[in-house]
Amino acid sequence: MNPPTSGHSLAEKLDHLFRTVRPHRRAEYTYEEVAAAIRATGIMISHTYIWQLRKGVRDNPTKRHLEGLAKFFGVSPAYFLDDEAAEAIHHQLHMLAALNDGGVRSVALRAFGLSEPSLQAIQMMIEQARRIEGLPDDEDKADDAP
After folding, report:
1. Is 63 exposed, middle or buried (0-12, 13-18, 19+ CB in 10 A)?
2. Residues 46, 74, 88, 25: is their CA dihedral positive or negative?
3. Statement: residue 145 has pLDDT above 60
4. Quick one: CA torsion of 34, 40, 41, 46, rounded to 10 degrees?
């Protein structure tokens, strides 16, 4: 999953949030779910307008709309406005998505408290497993993996 960083539009960044931030064990949020949650905070927004923002039909939301979207998806409003912030938030979302995977979370929790030599041995095994699976070796390339 490529990060929506430098030069990426509001639509691309919003689309990335929809694809990445999901309800537990479910497909992505619906436009109506997002709009209803934002309206509950007192910000008037329609599901159609959110769709338009995501698809790039509209691209100049108000500050309040950006704040509502950011709050709903659990990111800073700077995500939409600052490419450096978007990059940092992308990496945080990537980590959260990985930890939402039950298998990944289980490995991470079981590794907690192990000594440095044991952690290094596990890391080597994981790197070998990634090679067997044809996955990239380093974390930066993992963002580009299918």
Report:
1. exposed
2. negative
3. no
4. 50
